[in-house]
Amino acid sequence: MQEILLVLIAYCLGSIPSAVWVSKIFFDIDIRDYGSGNAGATNTFRVLGPKWGTIVMVLDVLKGFLAVKLALFAPQYFNSEIQFLNMQLILGIAAVTGHIFPIWANFRGGKGVATLLGLVIAISPWSALACSIIFLLVLFLTRFVSLSSILASIAFPLFILEVFDVDNNYYRLFAVAVAVLVILTHQKNIGRLIKGDENKVPIFKNRSRRKQPNK
Asked: Is the entire prediction scored with pTM above 0.85?
């Protein structure tokens, strides 16, 4: 029963629609009606600018991080490192699911990349740092958040399987699943990248919110 309650709390935590609430409270718009229509940090960057995009990204990362830390309320798993890690994974995945399908925002959320990052930071900070470096490097060179997310997610299982050699089969499977999930949720972005139609993020420029709603 305790485990079920923790998973539900993690899901509700992940369901906090940071981008939606920020856009409604401070700009009186629904971020999902603008840009790509996605309720995530990337679309917030595009529509509301770097300041608000960064705020949303930090909040989304915190959701994944704090969800994983809920495992500290399950002391029965402390004696087994593998079982404790598995519990952390379950809670983190629940938060990511909440971000993608948020109960507080009619189940229309984001793609879960930032919340996934929070999960990984909480469990394996060194691999998170390595993936973040790849993400930032690609972003600096291309200005494509989608490409940065895809390449960082592909690098994640390589770090887990080869570089850090994590000795947990469930975490290894999770790392591979993350790469697959990010690729699947970015299919439209991949199509636009191939066609040359993908939007770049204005990292050093402010954006006006007075944009045309997405069709």
From this structure: yes
